[in-house]
Design goal:
single chain; mainly alpha; elongated
């Protein structure tokens, strides 16, 4: 994860991985558009999150930025080696190995190459599943995506919301809200608070 959020001023978040800091639009600005306010209230019941609470939304958007960086890093860490190994194995097969005289040598090369690529692919998929499939992260993405919809609705309704705010795209995948994960997270954080105060 990145330390980018440590350098932000009050009311700022990173809107895109590697991008500039963006100022949070106040919930009162969004709530001034009746349609956006209604959408925020409906989403609050559905996703158990107050989309008009500036402090909660700011934390959500900062966490979303860290999640986006985590997804990129996970894909880069295993995706690049997989692509390089797969490409190298294919090129070597096309330029050298297929012309070897004995079928046993060619078959041995294919077996080793396939095994290495499969192992790399396994690590890539495992990393992706652990990140994309994490239900707590999915809840974060679902809420961030819904906030984006609400902000765009407010802008279309005449609110002073910058174009493309909050300056990141929607999550097309792995953004399903999971109430059971939210319950576990809430009870876990509440338990730690209780222990901290005892």
């Amino acid at each position: 994860m990145s330390d980018d959020n440590n350098d932000l001023g009050p009311g700022e978040f990173i809107g895109r991985r590697g991008g500039d800091a963006v100022a949070l639009v106040s919930g009162s600005v969004i709530a001034a558009v009746p349609e956006a306010k209604r959408a925020a209230e409906e989403a609050r019941r559905e996703l158990r999150f107050d989309f008009l609470d500036d402090r909660a939304v700011l934390e959500l958007l900062r966490q979303r930025h860290l999640d986006e960086e985590g997804m990129f890093n996970a894909g880069f860490k295993h995706g690049v080696p997989l692509a390089l190994v797969g490409f190298g194995a294919a090129v070597y097969w096309g330029g050298v190995a297929q012309y070897w005289e004995t079928a046993a040598s060619r078959n041995a090369y294919l077996a080793v190459a396939v095994a290495v690529v499969v192992i790399q692919f396994f690590f890539f998929v495992r990393s992706a599943m652990s990140h994309w499939g994490d239900p707590v992260r999915q809840n974060l993405r679902a809420r961030a995506g819904k906030y984006r919809e609400i902000a765009h609705l407010a802008r279309r309704g005449g609110a002073d919301v910058p174009a493309h705010y909050p300056h990141y795209g929607p999550y097309p995948f792995a953004a399903t809200f999971r109430p059971e994960a939210d319950d576990l997270e809430q009870s876990g954080s509440k338990g730690s608070d209780d222990r901290g105060h005892s």
